[in-house]
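#struct-pred
JK: can someone run the complex with LLP? inputs below
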Amino acid sequence: MRHFDLRGGVMHAEDVPIPDIAAAVGTPVYIYSTATIARHARVFREAVAATGDPLVAYAVKANPNQAVLAAVARAGLGADVVSGGELARARAAGIPADRIVFSGVGKTEAEMAFALDAGIYQFNLESLPEAEMLSAVAARMGVTAPAAFRVNPDVDAGTHAKISTGKSENKFGIPHRDALGAYARAAALPGLAMHGIAVHIGSQLTDLAPLERAFETVGALIAELRRAGHDIRIADLGGGLGVPYDPDQPLPPSPEAYGVMVARVTRGWNVRLVFEPGRMIVGNAGALVTRVIRVKEGVEAPFVIVDAGMNDLMRPSLYDAWHDIVAVRPSGAKVTANVVGPVCETGDTFATLRRIDQVAAGDLVAFMTAGAYAATMAGTYNSRPLTAEVMVSGDRWAVVRDRQPIEALIAADSVPHWLDEENA
Ligand code: LLP
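RT: done, structure tokens with the ligand placed:
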């Protein structure tokens, strides 16, 4: 569900006409809907409520804007963080430390100390050397670190290779066959309380079967670990549920169907479950609004050149991802076109030979489902400053991130004195 609809022929974000925002803030601009975030958080929580008292920890990497995190916090969600930076942002937005889990293969000593000091709920460890480092840091600080191993169940998630994480050749987790040995080693280390187990096999999953296989592996491991004397109380099932991007594709499984599967597979586990949804919460809560600079003739089809580039929205060039492209004031006429940005790379292409609303120079166009892994992955390539972000709620709207001025890019660099002297 999304709160971007045509009213009187003009696309609105909730009750705000998108052209009003574009006129005030300029383009490109990311627009987020508070109502969609709140709704998705509620739908997900309700879908998994039957599993007891789960912790739903929003994957901050999907969209770490403070306003988004504040909306997530208000909806009662915790956070899944993968860096000290994400932890700082989650805490700044008021997400309580006891609802925060820390994932990722490369946690540093400094990040571990920061998270221990904050008092987070659980560290999801991805290797024995990482467990040894956490043990040393915790022992030095005189505290006990609540921890889990993330296991790699060796299942094919059936998604894009770059966002699959649960195959044995991926860098994530410890091989499930090594889990018993790893827990035995970690349990013998000081400063660690190994009460959890975690899994996450990939993102934008459109089939529940691989998730179910991964969870079954976790269930079998919980039983084995308990037999070996480990007191497993928490199972973190990760994120990964896909969202609809292309209206012509079958819908991904609903949160309800996911919740029913989880309840069935985890029955009798006798643990507290943790979930780490990212895209499902914010994906359809955002759109990237851009203006057509010009339409250029092409051999096969015209090029619609818009003022957003691959630096603003990387997903199409990185993963060949599909984002629906719609005119903010559609005339009803359609055309087959290529939609491209201004960046000097052929990869700066959002759509090739796609049937879209006919648009002309000056028209506004929206890339839909741009709330997750969009603004947060932006860069400044081609010296294009970071885009503004806006949040709406009903008929109210606010800038939640200023457009970066080009002066900020220039000021961040410095010229070494020898070049200054030679120029003088
Ligand atoms: N938990 C862990 C440990 C993760 O690595 C991820 C995502 C999530 C949770 C959240 O997954 P979600 O529910 O959002 O699918 N940039 C890519 C997606 C990368 C996902 C990385 N990990 C994209 O634009 O598609």
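RT: quick notes.
The pocket of LLP is lined by residues 59, 62, 80, 103, 163, 200, 203-204, 238-241, 276-280, 315, 319, 373 (CB under 6 Å).
The longest strand covers residues 286-296.
JK: thanks, will look after standup
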